[in-house]
Write a structure and sequence with these properties.
Elements (H helix, E strand, L loop, with lengths): L15 H17 L26 E6 L5 E5 L2 H14 L6 H9 L7 H9 L2 H6 L15 H11 L6 E6 L5 H13 L6 E2 L3
Parallel strand pairs: 1-3, 3-4
Antiparallel strand pairs: 1-2
Helix pairs in contact: 2-3, 2-6, 6-7
């Protein structure tokens, strides 16, 4: 009896499922990515061997550039709003609802209280063109940074606020010390230093 011969042919590779999976993964990463907010100035952080990761939420970051100018950033819009409302009340700034909303949309802020209202009244494109002079911290009382930290702590009452300091590698010690004074005056002795 003759044996049945099975016809041999080249195996087919249907790549359609692989392409579908590839596009699904690509779409997921595009939609789930959290982009880093713009910094008002470029800060080159010092290197470190620390393995502690930077907190991803409820962070209050004080950035100090190489010239000693300080800027703040809050990642949570809800608490950012509460903070600026407290600042407006305690410092009698009289910020409108539109100016408060403008503050919550900013990646960071670095203007003194005297310029805050006029800065927030600008539209988003004009705000990007303004060179922010930094929040005053030039004395041992913490300057205006003391009030920003105090009101952020009030807004976060009952929750953990992660305090971060991100200083440029070329920042002089007196500028760093003045920011530390603002933290100490608010009884905040625990914070993280952001490094590369």
């Amino acid at each position: 009896m003759p044996s049945v011969k099975i016809k041999k042919h080249a195996p087919e590779n249907d790549m359609t499922p692989f392409v579908d999976i590839g596009f699904l993964i690509l779409t997921f990463f595009i939609l789930a990515t959290k982009f880093k907010p713009e910094d008002p100035v470029e800060i080159k952080t010092p290197s470190s061997v620390s393995s502690t990761a930077m907190p991803e939420k409820d962070a209050f970051t004080v950035s100090i550039d190489k010239d000693g100018h300080a800027y703040i950033f809050m990642d949570n819009p809800e608490f950012s709003r509460k903070t600026v409302e407290n600042i407006s009340k305690t410092r009698n700034l009289g910020l409108t609802e539109a100016e408060i909303k403008s503050f919550t949309n900013l990646p960071s802020i670095g203007v003194p209280f005297s310029q805050l209202k006029s800065f927030l009244s600008l539209d988003a494109e004009e705000q990007k063109k303004v060179k922010q002079p930094g929040i005053p911290v030039a004395d041992s009382t913490g300057g205006e940074m003391f009030y920003w930290i105090r009101d952020a702590l009030v807004a976060y009452s009952g929750r953990k606020l992660n305090l971060l300091i991100k200083a440029d590698n070329g920042t002089k010690y007196p500028a760093f010390k003045n920011v530390l004074s603002a933290f100490k005056l608010n009884d905040q002795n625990k914070f993280l230093l952001v490094t590369a």
